[in-house]
Amino acid sequence: MCTKCMIRIAVIAVVSTVSSSQLSLAGASQQQTLSAQALELVKGFGKDLKHTLVSSMKKDGPAASIGVCNLDAPRIAHEHAEKSGWTIGRTSTKLRNSANAPDGWEAKVLAIFAQKKAQGGDLKSMQYSEIIEKDGKKTFRYMKAIGVAKACLNCHGENLKPGVSAALKDKYPDDAATGFKMGDLRGAFTLSKPVK
Fold it and tell me: How large is the angle between the packed helices 62-84 and 3-60, nearest 10 degrees?
């Protein structure tokens, strides 16, 4: 092979390597940008949900606030989704509302969160994102862990007041979302958005 041909092959190899590295960096940069956007959406959704729930608890008590979670949480998620163009929700392995059941990807991430929590991981900073491809379409998926806080124990704890237990049986006959302790992994916020 002549020297000119070897140089051309070497240049093509270098250009190919640089191009695939740039694509890899571009993908990582896109994922970081989308993760930051998702985290901001989680903060906004979480803040609005917490405000609505705590206000209801102060005004009407925990038993009456179960209706807030039943009706207002999906509405608040929908409002944030409409404004942002993202799909926004919550999921868990211990469900209260079967409409929030995790899909396969979410179940995998919840298992990762549970393992990290068991190893001493901090739920406040626990998040996971990935760009997945299904049927030729790419989707950015993101989850942020939800830890059990003091206020959560009113309706998700081990020792519920009789009025709370009765309200849960009425609204959620198949409820499995009790028995939690402070700091447990309650579930996760789950967001997704189509990407190119």
Answer: 150
- How far apart, in whole angstroms, are the C-alpha atoms of residue 157 and residue 13? 60
pLDDT at 3: 43
User: CA-CA distances (angstroms) from residue 80 to 42, 100, 135, 194?
Assistant: 9, 17, 27, 16
Tokens standing for residue 48 = 């609005």
The answer, yes or no, to whether residue 24 has pLDDT greater than 60, is no
Cβ-proximal residues to 52 (8 Å cutoff; 6+ apart), any chain: 68, 72, 76
Instruction: Name the pTM for this structure.
Output: 0.83
* DSSP H or E stretch at residue 63: helix 62-84
What 3-state DSSP class applies to 189?
Answer: strand
Distance CA 53, CA 58 (A): 9
The stretch 177-193 carries a mean pLDDT of: 97
Burial 131-152, CB ≥16 within 10 A → b, else e: eeeeeeeeebbbbbbbbbeeeb
